[in-house]
Design a protein that fits this description.
The protein has 94 residues and is an alpha/beta fold. It has 3 helices and 4 strands, in the order H-E-H-E-E-E-H.
Length: 94
């Protein structure tokens, strides 16, 4: 859980429209939500309060965050890409 981790920022890799972050952050003030996706949502379909970054989580520089999550994206990736995403996110997550 976000509050148990003492997290002040949560990054969702392969965030889509940001719905997971929206649920994770609901009612938690002061926690920053960062959505990373190759194609972040356009205005109108994005979740309010989530910051979006257009990036390839397997290789691009990622924002600094306390916690990273990824749900419903690895089935689109090769094993090498999954390993790359884990290693790459480890450079930005404490």
């Amino acid at each position: 859980r976000v509050e148990r981790a003492g997290a002040r920022s949560v990054m969702d890799l392969g965030c889509g429209n940001g719905a997971l972050l929206g649920r994770l952050l609901k009612g938690r003030r002061g926690v920053r939500g960062i959505g990373v996706d190759l194609r972040p949502p356009v205005a109108g379909s994005a979740v309010e309060g989530v910051e979006y970054v257009a990036a390839d989580a397997t290789r691009d520089r990622l924002p600094v965050a306390d916690v990273a999550v990824s749900l419903c994206v690895i089935h689109h990736m090769t094993e090498e890409q999954v390993v790359g995403m884990i290693r790459n996110s480890g450079r930005s997550v404490g």
